[in-house]
Amino acid sequence: MATSDTNEGNRVAAVVKTLDILEALWQAEGAGVTALTERTGLAKSTVHAHLTTLRSKGYVVQEGDEYRLSLRFLSFGEHVKHAEPLYAASDGPITELSERVGERVLCSTHQNGLGTIINVSEGTRAFTSDIDIGTHTYLHSSAAGKVILAHFAEERIDEIIAEWGLPAFTDETITDRETLFEELAAVREEGVAYNHGEYLPGISAIAAPILDNDGTVYGAVSVTGPQHRLENEWEENELRTQLLSTANTIEVNVMFS
């Protein structure tokens, strides 16, 4: 996912380059200097210098001519995951829901105008996907993201659009502000949001918000699966009831955590 250019003048160029290299290493699952130069657009000498520094600090490891992220990042990931209240609060409820419906159940939160998957439970007929814990998503293109946006003030939504845009992922993705706001109004009225192949072709989802007592949105819980299963009217209505119950259980868990 591309980074936002907001507050470009305040960014430290060396830090941006380091992060670009780390992200390229992560995406490539390991690469040499030449491949990283092509991926980042940085000079080969710059890539090598940053890799040498990262290696000296233990953040990358080198095997021959290839570099990859070190296990040191595990401690960061585990710390961030367990520090997020929704992770523990959602674990039991989404497991129970995925066992009942057989589909993939996700718990998402939001940060800096983007969505992040915080927990995942796989049902017995869940489809294979590389969307997992830690995956960042644009809020306008997913059911979970839309149900989160529906609980933001209009001003905040406009800020997010200005920062991240409304990029298209499929032919079904909402890409204009007016259509998005119309859908968010419908989400607020119905209490859940839908995704009809808007992020991945042939994949649908239904999501419910996870709210604080004052209506502040923590995140969302969603069920996702093939369109031919989730868009069946009976199952969709049944899923809505079960989903809202799961979201409420997570809300209670967060409240007493």
Automatic annotation (TrEMBL):
One of its GO terms (biological process) is negative regulation of DNA-templated transcription. Residues 12-71 form the HTH iclR-type domain. SMART domains: HTH_ICLR. Coiled coil: none annotated. GO terms for molecular function: DNA binding; DNA-binding transcription factor activity. It comes from the Archaea. This is IclR family transcriptional regulator.
